[in-house]
Amino acid sequence: MHEIFTRLARWEHDQEVIRDIRQTVFVVEQSVDPELEWDGEDANCVHALAGITNQIVATGRLQQDGKIGRMAVLPESRGRGLGAAILGKLIEAARDIGLTDVYLHAQTHALPFYERHGFVAEGAEFDEAGIPHRVMRRSLRGDP
Q: For 112-133, what is each residue's pLDDT tens digit?
């Protein structure tokens, strides 16, 4: 059995692997416009990485306002808990910087995943980068 690991990333140091994963998942697989994917916000975000053994295969980011996004797991590594590991690391980072809640724009197919992690959908479905999404929010008040 391979061991899953997570760690916070430093954009200056880890941007190549972060870019490779997001390019594969969002730009190539999901046909997101590169101008939308590379929004100029990355240097201001907290990034998390997850991997199996010594290979990094997943990433996500936390913006200063509490928005979690750019959650991506390479296709061949899905279904092994890496998304949950990234999400947990970003929620931990949000708590550490004093945020009281976090939110995200979930692709509608991923709503059950985020619901299992305490997020609640709000508002109507909307289009983002040609993909249906919903806003989801999770309070961190009272979390351990």
A: 999 999 999 999 999 998 899 9
DSSP summary character for residue 2: P
**C-alpha gyration radius of the chain:** 14
Strand, coil or helix: what is 115? helix
Q: Report how many helices (DSSP H) and strands (DSSP E) the chain contains, helices first.
A: 4, 7
The span from the CA of 86 to the CA of 105, in Å, is 16
Distance (Å, whole) CA 100 – CA 106: 19
pTM of the model: 0.93
Given the candidates 3.40.630.30, 3.40.50.920, 3.30.70.100, 1.10.150.20, the CATH classification of the domain at 4-139 is 3.40.630.30
* Dist. CA 133–CA 18, nearest whole Å: 22
Amino acid at 112: P
